[in-house]
Amino acid sequence: MDDTAAVLARYDREMRESARPDGPGARVERAGRVVRQVAPAHGWNGVLWSGLDPHSADADVDAVIAEQVARYTALGHGFEWKLYGHDRPAGLARRLRAAGFTPEPAETLLVAETGDVPLDAEPPAGVRVVAVADAAGVDLVTRVHERAFGTDGAALRQQMLDRLAADPEGLLAVVALAGDEPVSAARMELVPGTPFAGLWGGGTVEGWRGRGLYRALVAHRARIAADRGYRYLQVDASDQSRPVLERLGFVPLTTTTPYVYER
């Protein structure tokens, strides 16, 4: 892959500073030094980019944070400040905690050139991968999400339905079926005009892990991204998925931590 610092700078510029709305009903707002997305309550609401001066005083940082809190509070719901490990000033995480934000587990931003990822991985015998194109398919993905991660999938379900209705070319969702039973699922978001295809939500239900399903779904999406001309694959990886992805050629660029503010 190219120089990682250059790829990270390009990611910041094209996917954060120049972010596009990620679904219907969402809009990106640029307010001073901040780029944020405002969406319906079931969508993703949060700060994508903050071009704060590295030498900003705490009082100046606090004022910018307070502006975002006021904006989302007026909308009636909480939001996330997506803080990357290289964001400045260095004390931004401390100021977010002081303002009432709660950090969730950190993830690693991994990127691979599409051509460097093995594309020949297939699911185990008896399992087939199908594309999701309707509400029934979305329900299968939601079932996998809830079983694999132990979380409520209602918001994800509505986001996917909205996105498929408004922009079916921008979202690729796939589910792996053992017979008629959904055992693994994943998504890919394609942003036209950028070189990055985002891999999201790869999860496998207990009892089917360790059989190559995660790798197969990465390869399936990578083939499609390559066919559509996307140069890079991007993942916000948990500690569990990071080793698998690194073996597939993904390279860490930085960390990302969701700082969540509940209304």
TrEMBL record:
Pfam family, any one: Acetyltransf_1
N-acetyltransferase domain mapped to chain residues: 127-263
Entry keyword set: Acyltransferase, Transferase
PROSITE patterns (alphabetical): GNAT
A GO MF label: acyltransferase activity
Acyltransferase recorded as keyword: yes
Enzyme Commission code: 2.3.-.-
SUPFAM superfamilies per UniProt: Acyl-CoA N-acyltransferases (Nat)
Name of the protein in question: GNAT family N-acetyltransferase
Organism: Streptomyces flavalbus
